Amino acid sequence: MSLPVYARYRAAFAGAIAEALGMPASDVEPQVKPAEPAHGDLSFATFALAKAQKKAPPAIAAALAQQVKVPGLEVKAVGPYLNARFTLLPFTAETIDTVRTEGLSFGGGDEGRGKTVVIDYSSPNIAKPIAFHHIRSTVIGHCIANLYRALGWRVEGINYLGDWGKQFGLVAVGFHEYGDPARKDDMAHLVEVYVKANARAEQEPEFDARAREFFRSMEAGDVAALELWKQFRETSLRNFERVYARLGIHFEHIEGESFYQGRMEPVVEEVGQRVGVKESQGALIVDLPYAENEPPILLKKADGSTLYVTRDLAAAVDRHERFQFEKSLYVVATDQALHFKQFFRVLNALGWPFASKLTHVNFGRVHGMSTRKGTLVLLDDALDQARELALEKVRQNIQEGRIQTRDAEALAEQIGLGAIIFGDLKHNRTSDYTFDWEEALSFEGHTGPYLQYAHARTCSVLQKSGGAPKAYDASLLTLPEEQALLRELVRLPMAVRDAAEQYEPSLVARLLLDVAAAFSRYFTAGNQDRDKRVLVEDEALRAARLVLTDATRITLAAGLTLLGIPTPESM
Ligand code: ARG
């Protein structure tokens, strides 16, 4: 695959400047930035050069303007800047043809070929209520997996279920007291039991001790205890899998903390030999200098049972052995920053070079994501609530003649997903935000349904006209709104790369909003009657505009798919 259009022009512009200056292109390229739209598409600031050469910046820019010649770029000095603008041709044709040739893989590439990224995401806890952070981890992790896959990486997505640990003992002893044996396969019931048992354990140390003892017996291989655990685990998993199917998520591996049962001893020993361990009140802790108030890193409790960090250490080593990864990402809430800091610190202290390839891809908190029925209990609840609210909207829109669909329920499911996923991904990963159902489901503004609607609109124009023709004349796309739209489409490959590098899906989310806004300005400008802009009398012009509409459709569909959002063709 060749360099994306924008990157190619940028490299050519930087190369020509470098040649004029007798400098290496690699020094110039990072200095070429997108220009202010009024000034063109690419810009090179001459301040640093001016300082080095002791000349006035405008003089340098003017001199460069004489020398720098790149086919397809109109180069001009504007004050201290050397600016370049894509000429109508070949830029228009190149952009459109790239989008159409690549189709839904537009935005991707193959620079990741031969490299592996491990992505630990979603990772809910069995038989425990889900929390906002599982939704965020699922949605963000899925998008990051899509981005890397699109760039040619081998992606090993791992759902690291919280299926081991004392909480499980709580469910087990709780079930004995509060459980209904006939409802062993009802996740909601297990969660109810957990909540009661947890509350009781906080009151009654004796009850808490029983829970701990239960987990200890699991670790000791007690057959009956493990049998019960297995049943509960399966119940939870079935519930989670329904949700993953709705979201279109497929994990390469579903292996939780229990995967490492009985396999932690080697790591504990390594830590003992190479870093040092010591006993503290019967527990085994890593012997490292700790900061004031920093809790020590516990590898084993006094009763010999293992901990979250012990399992994460074993898992990291195992993943490295199995996948030989270039990167290993943990998509987990910022709340666990200390855990990851300490866990990475132990790996570093062990002197394992792969330690530097691990990243905690942290994210902030969400407020307000509760449902009409109350707080979220199951992962399903948020999706159900979204579908329910979307269905009201869909019905209302059908009544008012704004949308048409044969299957309101199916469309509502898609719009509900669009609302939740986009409502999350449009925010900077690390910031906290408040989720507002009304806002997220709106068909206007910065929302998933708005983007889905824009995409459906491109589909409907194309449908009405029998589709976009193969041959067209790109030189007819001269309107400023057409050129502005093309300049958004051409940015998808960059947004994908930046988003992957920074683990920041919002960069793609925001680009799609820009695409939809530019399309809507183009589509509606100048006349009220909707499809008139594209479906004009002049056949050649109509063909060119249909092709541009098709390129917009593809870009929106490719981008939404990367975010994990369904793209209904009519709504
Ligand atoms: N199950 C954990 C929780 O719900 C998240 C696990 C994250 N992944 C990891 N390797 N620690 O908090």
TrEMBL record:
It is found in: Cytoplasm. Keywords: Aminoacyl-tRNA synthetase, ATP-binding, Cytoplasm, Ligase, Nucleotide-binding, Protein biosynthesis. Its main location: cytoplasm. One of its GO terms (biological process) is arginyl-tRNA aminoacylation. Residues 451-571 form the DALR anticodon binding domain. It comes from the Bacteria. The keyword Nucleotide-binding applies. GO terms for cellular component: cytoplasm. SUPFAM superfamilies: Anticodon-binding domain of a subclass of class I aminoacyl-tRNA synthetases (SSF47323), Arginyl-tRNA synthetase (ArgRS), N-terminal 'additional' domain (SSF55190), Nucleotidylyl transferase (SSF52374). One of its GO terms (molecular function) is arginine-tRNA ligase activity. Its EC number is 6.1.1.19. Belongs to the class-I aminoacyl-tRNA synthetase family. Monomer. HAMAP family: Arg_tRNA_synth. This is Arginine--tRNA ligase. It comes from Corallococcus carmarthensis.
